[in-house]
Amino acid sequence: MDELTEEKIKVINHRIGDLEAEVKDIKDLTIAISTVNNKVDSLSDDMTEVKKDLKEIIKRPVDNWNKFYMAVACAVASGIV
Predict the structure, then answer these.
(1) pLDDT tens, 21-60?
(2) pLDDT at 35
(3) Is residue 47 packed enough to be buried (19+ CB in 10 Å), middle (13-18) or exposed (0-12)?
(4) What mean pLDDT, rounded, does the chain reach?
(5) Percentage of residues in the chain with pLDDT exceeding 70?
(6) DSSP state, 21?
(7) CB-based contacts of 9: which residues, under 8 Å, 6+ apart?
(8) What are the phi and psi torsion angles at 2 (to 5°)?
C-alpha cells in the first residue's frame, strides 16, 4: 500500500477509536441518568408520604380543638337543661 492509503487507514482507525470512546461515554451517561431518574422517582414517592403525614399531624390539633369546643357546648347545653 502506498503512504496515502496507510495514512488514511490510521486516521480512520483513530476516528473509530474516538467514536468507540464516545459511545462508551454515552452508555455510561445513559446508565447514570437512569439511576438518577429512579432516585428522583423514589424521592417523589417519599415526599408524597411526608406531605400526607404532615397534613395528618397538622389536622390533629384542629380535631382536638373541635372536640374541646363540642365538649364545652355540650356542658353548657347540659347546664342549661
Answers:
(1) 999 999 999 999 999 999 999 999 999 999 998 888 887 7
(2) 96
(3) exposed
(4) 90
(5) 99
(6) H
(7) 1
(8) -85, 170
User: What is the CB neighbour count within 10 angstroms for residue 28?
Assistant: 10
Q: Which residue is it, cell 372536640? A: 67
What are the domain boundaries of the chain? Answer: 1-81
Whether the predicted pLDDT of 13 surpasses 90: yes
- The helix or strand, by DSSP H or E, that contains position 1, with its residue range, turns out to be none
Show the cell assigned to 10. Answer: 490510521
Q: Provide the CB-side half-sphere exposure for 43 (13 A, CA).
A: 6
C-alpha–C-alpha distance, residues 38 and 56, integer Å? 27
DSSP string covering 28-41: HHHHHHHHHHHHHH
